[in-house]
Amino acid sequence: MKHLRRGSPFLAGSTLLVGSTLLVAVACADDAGVAEKPIGHVDASTGGGGGTGGTTTDGSTPWCSPGETRSCYSGPAQSQGVGRCQDGVQSCQTGTFGPCEGEVLPASSEQCDGSVDDNCDGLVDEGCACQSGETRPCYTGPTATQGTGPCAAGLQQCQGGQWASACTGQTLPVAESCNGVDDDCNGAVDDSTGLRLYHYSFVSNAWSNGGYLSNVWTGPNAPGCAGIAAAVKLTDIDRTLVFGANGTLYWRKGSVWQPPQPITTRFPALTGVIDSVYHIAYSWSLAWNPSAPMQEGLTFTSVPNFYIYQYLPNDTVTFSQSGTLSNDPPPAPNQSAVRVRWVFEKLDLALRGSGAAYEFFTEYEDGFFYRYNAAGEWTKWSAQQSPLFSKAGAPAVQSCTAALFDHGTRVATLLCP
Fold first, then answer.
1. Where do the structural domains in the chain lie, given as residue ranges?
2. How does strand 228-234 pair with strand 206-212?
3. What is the DSSP string of 293-335?
4. Is the peptide bond before 331 cis (omega within 30 degrees of 0)?
5. Is 225 exposed, middle or buried (0-12, 13-18, 19+ CB in 10 A)?
6. CATH of region 196-416, choose from 2.110.10.10, 2.120.10.30, 2.60.120.330, 3.10.105.10
7. What is the pTM of this model?
8. Among 8, 48, 115, 169, which is disulfide-ready with 54 (CB 3.0 to 4.6 Å)?
């Protein structure tokens, strides 16, 4: 390069075009001068210290020294240093600062962990109903049923800061069934289930619904909702005998149910299925024979057989006879082959001397309703047209399983679904 004249007012900060190259002339105090610096370099002695680097004359990325570091944060300014948010570090790499490493930025939402301000707004777990992983008892059934019978609370899980809708592990009330459990959790076992009591009054000639048997015949020894094959009311000695389909005898003395026992314990001959039972009342026998012993005659049918027992006031039972059922002429049923669904006897001593003084009402599985009286006469109807089932409020035909009659109140009770 050709020397320029020293001291020229055009040297300091001026430029000179030499060919196509743009050179920068640096002001100098004397001919010794200062060595040229690389373009864009910032000297530490002239303002580049502290790790802040410098900026080239064209505004490009700061130039830095290898190993140099500085703090950095790319999140919103108001979140810096708040909650979990913290600065990162930039390191000098090949003359420029690299990415911001290690910084913690605001989360999109709170994590509901109970201790950290995740979105760095100065509040911890705002909008959270619970802490994730937390549990609490829950129960979605009627309040009064919780803790009654099998009904019990479950657990609700906290998920994402909100209580899950599911209540896991709870036991809710269900419809009562005949299983020895308080399924509907109302405090009563096997209530409002099983058979119903339908009453027919021979005084008013009308039906009434007596409700569920399990709600009426109550107590620790009552039949409850058990299946019932036959029943009989011994009015003169105030006993009620109920023969369960499971082979159990339930019996009530006065108004108190006694401990149940196997049917064969009291009636050894009754080893098969009992179709029906009816009785000859002591008062009927006494009307014809003043010296008749005080006992009730029980007749059981189990097609094709019958069994006769005598029931005494001291609750002892004696066997009289058994045999094969025989058939009467029509319109009588085929007694030796068709099973009885239910039967009850109606006694009215005021009509003594007529067939109506003692009448037996029965429904057979042949779909017909029969009446047999003391005169040995049979009458037959279709079940729907019978004197009982044709009246309003009657139970469904061919549905009842047992029946009994109270001679004192002149009310027949049928046990039906």
1. 109-173, 196-416
2. unpaired
3. -S-EEEEEEETTEEEEEEE-TTS-EEEEEEEE---PSTTS--T
4. yes
5. buried
6. 2.110.10.10
7. 0.65
8. 48
